Amino acid sequence: MNLNQVTVPARDVAAAVAFYQQLGLRLIVDACPRYARLECPDGEATFSIHRVEELPRGEGVTVYFEHEELDEWVATLRGLGVKFEQLPTDQSWLWREARLKDPAGNQLILFYGGENRKNPPWRV
Q1: What is the CATH number of the domain that holds 55?
Q2: Which of 35, 52, 78, 123 is at 20 to 30 A from 12, Cα to Cα?
Q3: Domains: count for the chain
Q4: Where are the beta strands (DSSP E) in 69-119?
Q5: Is residue 51 part of a domain?
Q6: What is the extent of the structural domain holding 107?
């Protein structure tokens, strides 16, 4: 089994597409205003945005994107005007993370976990 795709809700799919393209994802299906699918620049995963009338309440969706050069990536995005809630910070679970929200309010975590992503010292 392999994770193929994650879909997030948005009221404005076009705005969400523009945001995710800034992050480096490439548009592969454009069915705006109701749907779009993008692909990650590395690997085989895809990411989609589906139009909804009402956004989820509460914590909602959290999506993680990993990049080996996290600090440089965040600096580039900040230079493009992307706003962050938290700049890259070392975490106790041995990842370095930056946090931001997409235009629909979905929580994004840009991170680098390296070997610890799948093989932390406490792995079962």
Answers
A1: 3.10.180.10
A2: 78
A3: 1
A4: 86-90, 96-101, 107-112
A5: yes
A6: 5-117
- The DSSP letter of residue 10 is E
Which is it for strands 35-39 and 26-31: parallel, antiparallel or unpaired?
A: antiparallel
Residue given tokens 């956004």 in the structure block: 55
Contact 45, 3 (CB under 8 A): yes
Spatial distance between the Cα atoms of 38 and 2, rounded to a whole number of angstroms? 17
Copy the structure tokens of residue 60.
Answer: 């909602």
Whether residue 33 is preceded by a cis peptide bond, meaning omega within 30 degrees of 0, is yes
Dihedral sign of CA atoms 25, 27, 29, 34 in order: positive
In the predicted model, residues of the chain with pLDDT beneath 50 are: none
124 inside domain: no
- What is the model's pTM? 0.93
The first and second tokens of residue 4, run together, are: 């193929």
Q: What gap in Å lies between CA 90 and CA 87, rounded to an integer?
A: 10
